[in-house]
Amino acid sequence: MIYEGKAITVKEIEGGIAQLNFDLQGESVNKFNRLTLEELGAATEKLGAREDLKGLVFTSSKDSFIVGADITEFTKLFAGPEDELIANSLNANAIFNAIEDLPFPTVSAINGIALGGGLEMCLATDYRLMAPKAKIGLPEVKLGIFPGFGGTVRLSRLVGVDYAVEWICGGTENRADAALKVGAVDSIIEADKLVEAAVALINECNAGKLDYKARREEKKGKIKLNAMESMMAFEISKAFVAGKAGKNYPAPVEAIKVMQKHAGLTRDKAVEVEAKGFAKMAKTNVAACLVGLFLNDQALKKKASAWEKEAADVNLAAVLGAGIMGGGVAFQSALKGTPILMKDINQDGIKLGLNEAKKLLSKRISKGKMDADKMGDVLNNITPTLNYGDFKNVDLVVEAVVENPKVKDAVLRETEDTVREDTILTSNTSTISINKLAENLKRPENFCGMHFFNPVHMMPLVEVIRGEKTSDRAIATTVAYAKAMGKTPIVVNDCPGFLVNRVLFPYFGGFAALLRDGADFQKIDKVMEKFGWPMGPAYLLDVVGMDTAKHANEVMAEGFPERMKADFKSAIDVMFENERYGQKNDKGFYRYEEDRKGKPKKVVDEQTYELIKPVVADQKDFEEEDIIARMMIPLCLETVRCLEDNIVEAPADADMGLIYGIGFPPFRGGALRYIDDMGVDKFVELADKYADLGPLYHPTEKLREMAKNGEKFFG
Prior knowledge:
Blueprint lengths: L2 E2 L3 E7 L2 E6 L11 H16 L5 E6 L13 H6 L2 H19 L5 E5 L3 E2 L1 H8 L2 E4 L4 E3 L13 H9 L1 H10 L2 E3 H7 L4 E2 L5 H13 L5 H9 L6 H19 L5 H12 L4 H16 L2 H24 L8 E4 L3 H12 L4 E4 L3 H20 L5 H9 L1 E4 L10 E4 L5 H12 L7 E4 L6 H5 L8 E6 L8 E6 L5 H13 L3 E6 L6 H17 L4 H11 L5 H8 L1 H14 L1 H4 L6 H7 L12 E5 L5 E5 L1 H7 L11 H21 L6 H12 L8 H8 L1 H10 L11 H9 L6
Parallel strand pairs: 3-4, 4-5, 5-7, 6-8, 7-10, 11-12, 11-14, 12-13, 14-15, 15-16, 17-18
Antiparallel strand pairs: 1-2, 2-3, 8-9, 16-17, 19-20
């Protein structure tokens, strides 16, 4: 054994060739934490001192190769001084440079995922062999940063500027065929033959058939573009990427600027430029928020995995109500491999549900994500029915009928009588109390909410709602089924609107009051979209549907009358009364026309202004900061109340629910992190400035205590 550690071992395998193997003890994946980097440095130093070695193969004992850096270490690291961040990057680069400078040929045998620092290390070797099912990429921009272990330097020289920009700025995970096409890897080899092929490659180098030194010098040199070519490549890329990423996500454009700066430098100077650029991005609030989101997401996954251990198997599911929502649920379940019955009371409903599934599958075929055989398999997983004949075999039922408590009550009681005693019943209600729906059930312990968001196939969140009598088994099984459908489940306690709608409707309340006071709904939309929302509140109401919003608002007003019962007639009321329901009938705050792709395109409709004139003040030009404050304070305060009322268990649950459920701007991290970033004391001060607008703007006593004590939601 040449070297033995807790993450890395090095041994001689044959003919003077060594194998450096990654196998991080106590972890399911390999990652570049401090320990792994330290051991890699020590192992490389030992290898460099050996004069008898003829080559080195890098391997992994785990299914993945190296998934990247240990992101749990980022929060503390990024909070430190910028010069420490630079030093950290240069330290890792010194190790990778030492690998690149070893006095013999080196090969990475990539058996599984190699992302971020994992790929950057592979780029330091002379050759890369990749298994057919492996994926490689540099996804750092998704965390608000870009590669800092030499990735921008080595990839741009290996594959060229255009492909390097595409990979780094897109943050994509790339399959073996795509990696081979651009020259990021040298060959695709079956996983069990990787070491054998790597040894053969090293032997060819030592026999003089391959010039590994020449390849190495190319990778360590300058980018081979003249001044004009370089200027064109980088300036065009910057303009294109800036348009795609937007100003709220600076890392992709900064990555290009860094590549442009080090294009004319050799490796050792180039990595210094990269390290400085990396540190600059790591110190941004965007990076702090996106890293926080990643950690929050990991925390959610950990909770879901814990629930899975207690879950009963769901081998057959059923959905009641075969409309757009029911068809979406059926499609998602079938696509991810859980067969599902789709029941409706008439053939037209069944047809609508099946058509929804077919439409979604056809889109996948047209985009090359699926072939006709796979489409057939998915459709065969959906069994349409007009009766309860097969329901004795169903493990979990999703009720997705009309949002009416009497109808839901009747359907749930009827279903309970036809299923087994251990079958889990769930309701896809967005507003109706789970406790209320459980009142007439014989087995309320087997009942909970399972709130999907529309469109089901696109929206990642599922709220799993616990009623007073819901058992852990029901929650666990529903969470596991949501995960099996490819969704992110968040467990919440019952209350009007649960988490997402309870928080969303104070936001709409802020919007309604702004219109009442003379704000222009188009300007509000533009300001909030600039703030980072995917669509402004007027546009969002049109997408949600004015009838749906009106109904949900009534539920909120009944549940929280002090805060959410308006004392004025709103523009939303006027839209509803005039049957301007939004996209569902092509007119709401905006009119909707089909674009060339057949999708609804919003158009300004002057009639809206005439209709709302009786309920709004003369138009007034509000400052952007004023609009943002009046929209965001109610949303943030209601999120605080959900946490204080134990509707959600932790701040991470609340913030992820808003990001996955209503598109809260990810680069701002969520409502509670937004308060943290402003400072709890400053947020309370801001809310107090708007106190005369009513209880929606009044901080809770606990929040005032946090402000007084200098506390935060996230440490």
